[in-house]
């Protein structure tokens, strides 16, 4: 099989199903086909598992000369970014082929993809349901076999939750493992780019290619990247699994709980042990997350002013109106809600009561994880309290939408890595995700644990 065949198959599939799935915002067809024919002239490629693989990139990572919108009207005309995100550069070096840019919630704010200003991506398993978000396009495109691999970003669950809803494997790496250079910032202290794939093995290959220190990102860790594929070959005999009781209490659907308990049974059979533990502060995680992430977003999104990037309002007659109108017309409702919340939380007089308090809660949550990891190798639980919900079901109720992230958000606040992998189906035939959480920079143990189950 040639790279041209692979790329052609990818576009054929996209042209057949993407009208329904709506995973893509922008396709890169001409350039991708040209690159494929170039790659077909090279003989060497057999030793590189990523050579010629069709890849989708979430539309909040900049791609040189390829439109990057963050699914926002304010970047609708951002057709010609000047550089690639570091992850994109790294994958170009591995000779993957960028098929297109994937749909998402606007600026990665959302859990259902319904906040995209273009179209709501649908769940390929049943198009009445959401694919999750904000990397809904990235998960749906892999699940619908439009691309082999995709990149997503995860600030409060946005890789793991859609991976769970779409029945694919998604990993949020340790904060600092993967460069954020060229990722349009939402909440810089939480954002991480990660791989979404069909299998655990593919996932390890993709992480291998994007991980590692980048001088262009001051929060990028200077560590030696381990060989993740090597970790797949070890078994889980003697592995100590912790299961937080907060992750199986009421609010978690019975069939989700059942699927997780079944998975734990599999681990027992494989020679691992599990015990119940507590992450006592996780009940405060959602509140702390929305304060901190919105505060950071209100600062990060100040750069979208109609001057430096993107769309400028045509209705303004003076400078101040130009800023105001460009932002009012360019941002969607959810983004405006977060900017207002964040601006309020950072205002003088409120800073101590909200932002500072949320930072303290964040530390307590981080300590909870550290304490558990003194005695256990991994933490296992569900990725989400329920399988995918229906399109439109939560769209008018931001608080229940936010609550959907209750099991993923603590991981971002603690900065540790977490994966979602499929572990069963609901009675409606929708996938259920198993979440595996590891110690800082211990993605290897997550891969080892996931591979043994898969
Ligand atoms: N759903 C969460 C939010 O809306 C998480 C988003 C994310 O991880 N990018 O903020």
From TrEMBL:
Quote the cellular component terms of the Gene Ontology held in the record.
Answer: glutamyl-tRNA(Gln) amidotransferase complex
Q: Which GO terms describe its molecular function?
A: ATP binding; glutaminyl-tRNA synthase (glutamine-hydrolyzing) activity
Keyword RNA-binding found: no
Q: What does the protein in this record do?
A: Allows the formation of correctly charged Gln-tRNA(Gln) through the transamidation of misacylated Glu-tRNA(Gln) in organisms which lack glutaminyl-tRNA synthetase. The reaction takes place in the presence of glutamine and ATP through an activated gamma-phospho-Glu-tRNA(Gln).
Stored SUPFAM superfamilies: Amidase signature (AS) enzymes
Could you confirm whether the keyword Nuclease appears in this record?
no
| Keyword field | ATP-binding, Ligase, Nucleotide-binding, Protein biosynthesis
Q: How does it assemble?
A: Heterotrimer of A, B and C subunits.
EC supergroup of this enzyme = ligase
Gene that specifies this protein: gatA
Residues in the active site? 58 (charge relay system), 134 (charge relay system), 158 (acyl-ester intermediate)
> Which Pfam families does the UniProt record give?
Amidase
Output the InterPro entries linked to this UniProt entry.
Amidase, Amidase_CS, Amidase_dom, AS_sf, GatA
- List the top taxonomic levels of the source: Bacteria, Bacillati, Bacillota, Bacilli, Bacillales
Q: Which superkingdom, per the lineage?
A: Bacteria
Q: Which GO terms describe its biological process?
A: translation
Q: What is this protein called?
A: Glutamyl-tRNA(Gln) amidotransferase subunit A
The catalysed reaction is: L-glutamyl-tRNA(Gln) + L-glutamine + ATP + H2O = L-glutaminyl-tRNA(Gln) + L-glutamate + ADP + phosphate + H(+)
Give start and end of each Amidase domain: 5-446
Q: Might you give the EC number(s) for this enzyme?
A: 6.3.5.7
Recorded hits in HAMAP family, A to Z, give:
GatA
* Annotated family: Belongs to the amidase family. GatA subfamily.
